[in-house]
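In this supplementary section we document a worked example of the pipeline. Step one takes a protein sequence of length 506 as its only input; no multiple sequence alignment statistics are reported here. Step two produces a three-dimensional model, which step three serialises into structure tokens for compact storage. The input and output of this example are shown verbatim.
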Amino acid sequence: MKKIRHILLLLAALTLPITFSVGQTPPRVLTLEDAIAVAQSQSPDALTSRQTFRSSFWEYKSFRASYLPSMAASANLPEFRRDFNQYQNPDGSYSYLQQQYLSVNGDLSVSQRLGFSGGTIYATSSLGRLDNVPFTDSTYSYNSTPIFVGISQPIFKFNAYRWDRKIQPLQYDQAKKKYLEDLEQISITATNYFFNLLSAQIEKKIALTNLSNYDTLFRIAKGRYQLGKIAENELLSLELNFLRAQADVENAGIGLDMALFRFRSYLRIRDTIPIKLIPPTAISFFKVSPVDAVGYAKTNSSAYMDFERRMLVAERDVRQAKMDGRFDAELNAGYGLSQTAVYNEVTKVSPVVGDAYKNPLESQQLSLALTIPIYDWGVARGRIKVAEAQQEIVRNEVEQEMLDFERNAYIKVLQFNMQENLIRIAAKSDTVARKTYEVVKGRYLIGKPVTILELNDAQVNTDNSEKNFYSSLLLYWRSYYELRKMTLFDFRQSKPLQFNIKDISM
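The serialised model returned by step three reads:
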């Protein structure tokens, strides 16, 4: 293990030296962890994920608040009405009398939902004044209800509150898991951009190295050709390689600029400071148990919570279909005090507000409303059958998706466990290819018999081996973050992934 790590660090040091001349702006040096931290902080995906979670957070807060007592005040300031009312005269005839009045009233109410039963309890207090027009001391009155307490309770009605108490907390937990998964997806995306830029930098370095090598070989070949030691076709082949190397440098420069633009764009880096990436070669390899990983995935994944939520929603819809449109009853009961203060004809005293609260009278309310469907032509039965069919569809889909999820999780763990061996092979291949090229090049420089085909093959193998090494690094880190996203578990530190809600400004 130490030998492999030494090889990886040596390769990184050889391939990407960090140098800058005096007077130049020092480059911004970024590791993979640095790039991921920046992406999780300010990338477009990070901003969207935070807003999505905030929406779920406040939706859940609103749900919780809906089960707390609510207080409301209302007022009518004022209401003017003019009516024609019919009256029967002593002789049996009818006449109409115009009435004009102005009313002012207000009330204060407190209510509380009963989640377990679907009912509501409430308490109200109100005060009003009624003035007949034209205004006189004897044409107004006060009416008060100091307190009235009541309950409204459906007996057989579908209780949506009861199901919300099951589904909403689960949905909020799913949103928290989804946010963590989004962060890991940002890590995966940032890793892709990081290695795209890293590969572009390597391509540029390889192109410059090859240009330097072919420039040296071409100059040596021209001298040997003038001495008659090599044929013209060998000289032309080296010249062609030299020209191709020049074109490769230009193409690599364009590719580097494009990769750098995409990298800056995703990380929202607005300055123009040069960027130098440090290859993430310091890897502490470890193995993951497929059984443990699948268990963590089933416990932590938002997908499994979504499976449970979908089953609950389907069960709720069936229950609602069975309850709606059937026999129903609603009980309303209440008790309160009320009083009215009017003009006293005996003492000729006009009423005041306080009179409406003296010696209040009791008032009671009790009612039982029944709804009895007689015949609906099979509408209710059809809704039940549709809901049951949808529930069966959801059950079958969830069962299949659970099987697929577990299988994919198992396969991803196996793929991750292979990465150590793949990196070892890639590192060894790169070392061998580099040494082989140096040997072939050295033999050519000292005049030993080496064909241009052998020289080209050695150079191509060296370039491809170095690219394959960094491709294997990309596969390792991408597989690592995919494993974290799937399980929401940090296997390096043996603890579940978490986040602090306070870190997300609400």
